[in-house]
User: Which sequence fits this backbone?
């Protein structure tokens, strides 16, 4: 792994005028530069369709950093490293011109032939770009070459295999960095530390002491401008195949023998292999889909999904999924992992709740009823931290108890917001650390699981809409847990 001092690379950014680049990538790169994690030996070539010269492009980047990032004194110095090339992804001539520019910058900035190709553009181009990079000589370099690729990686297993084949014709598996930006989030990265660096949790982290685990990722926004993509994808492909299954595999994996990319990934893969497949009629028992109808949010009426721009009036696409995963191995047999995710829900929140089993015999009472179970809550966003729910003696009473929360918030300790996920992932990629990116085996196993559910849902017309915008999803999502004797804990618990 390279150290901070000698990190040098050319970053070739396809989709340089896109939304992701503007909101996330330039501010994140600038943060790395500002903090000294990106040396002066770097250059960024922005590639997109719209005609722009270097000057216009630099204005674009400056505007992005000042609008979405943190400004500091050396912004102009940072921006002087940016170059622009107007490009057509299907045209070999464009790549040849790009190669000339890249070779020149390699020399100017002493980049040692190191190249990161970042595809922040529509997935339909991923295969074409990767093949052209090889055919037109851009991957022919003495330094490292890495491909960073945004989601979605395919639409189902078959299309993912096809895409992977094309990408692998130009890059080896360990040169491919498949982004799942949840893996860049501070508290998602913290799951492993909480589990494997605390003697009090790991002995309890199994089916003898845990009754169920709940993962919620709720959004308040609707489909916004993404309807053309989203209506073909739905929540199961957009959220469950990647982010939700990644979180579950981090929660359920065995301790790796070492903290290396290969060892960690191999433990995550084992979890995905142990997932009990849900097929055919069983889909109705294990998964619930929903689509939002109109509702009131913050006092304002918002439209139903089917009334959003570019959504068909009879859309069968789910904007909400709740599901139950069972992991058939020694550690987890019998422990349900519930997940739910959706748009236009009551609150914006991602959190994980680990519910411990009840104690064997209750000697106390809490207001005349049973004790609260112990909960470990991992707050992923917008708050970042953990809360441990315990029962303590109620002051002044002999047998009475009261629940208390032990809180840790990253803000209260560090005093600042933690770095944006993209900043961490870009830094990892520059250092050649692929741990927080998704390996092909994980992608393939996740699609195999999700395809079984999509197949059933695609072939049956759903009774949509079935939840009001501003609620926590359809009633059936509550019943999914009720029939197992559980309930969803409130997200901000
Ligand atoms: P966008 O539509 O805003 O931008 C697309 C970019 O691709 C533009 O710069 C455009 O010029 C370029 N482009 C399009 N066709 C081209 C062609 N033929 N030749 C050369 N360049 C071309 O898209 P986006 O929202 O920035 O998303 C990019 C990728 O990132 C997608 O895979 C998306 O799923 C993923 N993603 C986006 C976000 C986000 O917050 N926007 C979040 C997660 C993942």
Assistant:
């Amino acid at each position: 792994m390279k150290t901070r001092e000698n990190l040098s690379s050319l970053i070739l950014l396809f989709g340089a005028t896109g939304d992701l680049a503007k909101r996330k990538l330039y501010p994140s790169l600038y943060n790395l530069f500002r903090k000294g994690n990106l040396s002066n030996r770097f250059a960024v070539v922005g590639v997109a369709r719209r005609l722009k010269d270097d000057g216009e492009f630099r204005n674009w980047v400056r505007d992005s950093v000042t609008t979405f990032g943190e400004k500091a004194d050396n912004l102009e110095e940072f921006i002087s490293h940016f170059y622009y090339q107007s490009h057509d992804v299907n045209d070999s001539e464009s790549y040849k011109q790009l190669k000339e520019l890249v070779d020149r910058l390699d020399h100017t900035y002493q980049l040692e032939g190191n190249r990161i190709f970042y595809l922040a553009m529509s997935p339909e181009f991923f295969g074409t770009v990767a093949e052209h990079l090889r055919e037109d000589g851009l991957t022919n370099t003495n330094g490292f070459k890495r491909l960073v690729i945004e989601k979605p990686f395919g639409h189902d297993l078959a299309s993912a295999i096809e895409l992977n084949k094309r990408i692998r014709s130009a890059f080896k598996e360990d040169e491919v960095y498949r982004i799942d930006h949840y893996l860049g989030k501070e508290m998602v990265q913290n799951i492993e530390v909480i589990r494997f660096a605390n003697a009090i949790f790991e002995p309890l982290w199994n089916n003898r002491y845990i009754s169920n685990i709940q993962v919620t990722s709720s959004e308040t926004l609707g489909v916004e401008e993404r309807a053309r993509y989203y209506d073909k994808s739905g929540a199961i492909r957009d959220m469950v195949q990647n982010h939700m299954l990644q979180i579950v595999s981090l929660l359920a994996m065995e301790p790796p023998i070492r903290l290396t990319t290969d060892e960690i990934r191999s433990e995550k893969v084992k979890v995905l292999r142990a997932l009990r497949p849900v097929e055919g009629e069983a889909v109705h028992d294990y998964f619930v889909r929903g689509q939002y109808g109109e509702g009131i949010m913050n006092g304002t009426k918002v439209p139903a999904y089917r009334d959003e721009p570019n959504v068909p009036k009879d859309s069968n696409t789910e904007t909400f999924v709740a599901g139950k995963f069972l992991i058939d191995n020694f550690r987890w047999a019998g422990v349900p992992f519930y997940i739910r995710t959706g748009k236009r829900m009551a609150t914006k929140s991602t959190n994980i709740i680990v519910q411990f089993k009840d104690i064997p015999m209750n000697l106390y009472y809490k207001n005349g009823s049973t004790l609260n179970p112990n909960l470990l809550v991992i707050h992923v966003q917008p708050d970042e931290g953990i809360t441990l729910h315990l029962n303590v003696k109620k002051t002044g009473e002999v047998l009475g108890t009261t629940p208390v929360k032990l809180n840790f918030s990253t803000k209260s300790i560090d005093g600042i917001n933690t770095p944006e996920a993209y900043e961490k992932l870009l830094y990892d990629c520059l250092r050649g650390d692929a741990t927080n990116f998704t390996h092909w085996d994980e992608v393939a196993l996740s699609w195999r699981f999700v395809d079984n559910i999509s197949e059933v849902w695609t072939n049956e017309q759903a009774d949509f809409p079935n939840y009001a915008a501003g609620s926590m999803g359809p009633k059936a999502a509550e019943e999914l847990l009720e029939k197992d004797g559980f309930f969803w804990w409130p997200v901000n618990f």
Q: What stands out?
A: DSSP finds 14 helices and 18 strands in the chain. Residues 15-21, 48-50, 87-89, 120-123, 150-151 surround nicotinamide-adenine-dinucleotide (CB under 6 Å).
